[in-house]
Amino acid sequence: MPQNVAVPRSRLAWLPNALTIARLAALPVLLVVLARAEGPTSVPAAVIFGVVGATDFLDGSRDDIVDAIVALEPYSADAPRGPFNAGGVDWTFDCVALPIVTNNAFEALDWGGTCVVIGVSGMTTEFHGLYQRLTQVDRGIIGCRAGTISPQRDIPLIIDLYRRGEILLDELVSVTYPMAEFEQAIHAMESGSIARGVLTMT
């Protein structure tokens, strides 16, 4: 970790660019995006890791998806997995919150890796895992609400980065709609024809 850097309370607020990240999402079919960024610590990497700069795309519906992820970031050249299931990525983001997806995201972690559950599941939905994956090797599973954002700190920072051209936000928007076309925007999102629609005040 760089010297003289105050680490925020949330583990999500500080993501080094050098980490490998896998995002498991429904788009509308399950897809795994692996990003390998380089360079110093970077907020842009945390903000847009799965949209810009992705290096590998995998079909998340395949039976061997965990093995496929680990093959991209193996324990060594000779063995994909090492002691205590070493090998895999540093961060996984479960954007679906289905038990099988959460389990796959967790199983794809290297030592010290963190699985972030972003998706919202039913109130009684359960998932199961092996305690050995957690102990002694510092793996973890955490939840995330609204991006674990601190609005007073993060929104001005993101706006400043956007204005300086250091992060790409326009590319995250599929289409814009005037407020009068609110229902059309909702129907487009429900049908899956767009990823993100933005309403404008014009």
Mean pLDDT: 74
Unreliable residue stretches: 1-19, 26-33, 35-53
> How many strands?
8
- Architecture of the largest domain in CATH? 3-Layer(aba) Sandwich
Terminal CA distance:
45 Å
The secondary structure category is alpha/beta
Q: Strand order, main sheet: write it out.
A: 3-2-1-4-5-6
Q: How much helicity do the residues have?
A: 10-25%
Element-level helix/strand string: EEHEHEHEEHEHE
Could you tell me the strand content as a percent range?
15-25%
Q: What does the radius of gyration come to? A: 18 Å
Please tally the helical runs, counting DSSP H or I stretches of 4 or more residues.
5
Q: Given the C-alpha coordinates, what overall shape results?
A: elongated
Reading off the top of the CATH hierarchy, the class of the largest domain is best stated as Alpha Beta
Explained architecture:
By secondary structure, the chain is of the alpha/beta class. It has two domains: 11-148, Rossmann fold; 171-202, no CATH class. It contains five helices and eight strands, in the order ββαβαβαββαβαβ. It has helices at residues 43-48, 65-72, 99-107, 151-163, 182-191; strands spanning 20-26, 30-36, 54-59, 89-94, 109-117, 140-143, 175-178, 197-200. The strands form two sheets. A six-stranded mixed beta sheet has the order 3-2-1-4-5-6, with helices on one face. The chain has a two-stranded parallel sheet with strand order 7-8. It is elongated. The N and C termini lie far apart (45 Å). The model is unreliable at 1-19, 26-33 and 35-53 (pLDDT under 50).
